[in-house]
Amino acid sequence: MNWHLPDADETPAAEVEREAAVWRPLAEAARELVDLCVMSDVEEDEVRAAQADVEAAVARLRKVRRTQTLGQQHLTGGRRRPWGNPVIGLRNPIAPPLHVTSDATGRAETRFHCGAAYEGPPGLVHGGVVSLILDQVLGHSVGAAGRPGMTGTLTIVYRQGTPLGDLRVEAWIDREDGIKTWAKAHMIGPRGVTAEAEGVFILPRAIRERLLDRS
Ligand SMILES: CC(C)(COP(=O)(O)OP(=O)(O)OC[C@H]1O[C@@H](n2cnc3c(N)ncnc32)[C@H](O)[C@@H]1OP(=O)(O)O)[C@@H](O)C(=O)NCCC(=O)NCCSC(=O)Cc1ccccc1
């Protein structure tokens, strides 16, 4: 059973790309700023001068603040513009960001870089970040298979520390039963699998009822 939820964002692709070209460079600069807040070793006067520069940029951006979050405005169900997402969002400096490729069977893969801002134990990615990324790619997998849902239960087994740097995640559908879909994923570092994930994704009752009403 597959569910095809409506694509909520009707904006023409060329306009989406134009807006992306405006916001992406800002987020990229902010990501480097986040990295340098952790990694820069400049003199203290330089730190204070940088603070003033950042405060000036913040004052510009603060002039107009949207009333709805990006997810609320562009409904992530449409998956055209999950730009605020903390894992894949092109406008979100917290996101590495991941670019996930997938096929209609739900097999998904992504290669990405986790820098110093994601450090937990020395030299290793924070376990919560590992879980965050695995949850996102599992969610992508079930969505790609036409079985979108919310994470009901997520189980992570940490096999070895995940080193900061270049990483890969693979995800696939394990099984499905009615409104529930189980997906699995591996986080893979230079020395093999670092963490294994299993999630059960459930189409929430409210959406089930909406789909029933339409049929
Ligand atoms: C939707 C649901 C999980 C279930 O609610 P309802 O639909 O009202 O459930 P209902 O009571 O009708 O039971 C139906 C069946 O399901 C079973 N079952 C129920 N619960 C659980 C469970 N926890 N775990 C396992 N199974 C459970 C229950 O036994 C029953 O089974 P049965 O038919 O008897 O065999 C709800 O509790 C919720 O919204 N939780 C918050 C989710 C949330 O915030 N997640 C994090 C945000 S998502 C994210 O970030 C990832 C992402 C990234 C990117 C893209 C996409 C995703």
Automatic annotation (TrEMBL):
UniProt xrefs under CDD domains: PaaI_thioesterase
Domain of life: Bacteria
Keyword Transferase among record annotations: no
Gene Ontology molecular-function annotations: hydrolase activity
Annotated protein name in UniProt: Acyl-coenzyme A thioesterase PaaI-like protein
Keyword tags: Cytoplasm, Fatty acid metabolism, Hydrolase, Lipid metabolism
InterPro entries, per database record: HotDog_dom_sf, THEM4/THEM5_acyl-CoA_thioest
BP term (GO), one: fatty acid metabolic process
Species of origin: Nocardioides kongjuensis
